[in-house]
Task: structure prediction
Amino acid sequence: IGVKDKACTEVCPCDCIQGDDNSPQLYIDPGCCTDCGACESECPVDAIYMNRYLPLKWKHYEQINADYFKDKWMDQIK
Result:
């Protein structure tokens, strides 16, 4: 949250990491992510985890991430 180092976006083969300067964080599109893990090892602040390894204290971010893309999808069909 707040850091938004975009090194992870440069290594993503699917271009599924999104967010802009006004976003509180970067988001990973679960619909296009292939779980390759390239972004996880590139993240300088250890903020990216495979879902099965997501620490319990950060579990609520899984829903925040999903909601971000739900809202994006709804905007596209309007």
In short: The mean pLDDT is 87. The beta strands are 17-18, 27-28.
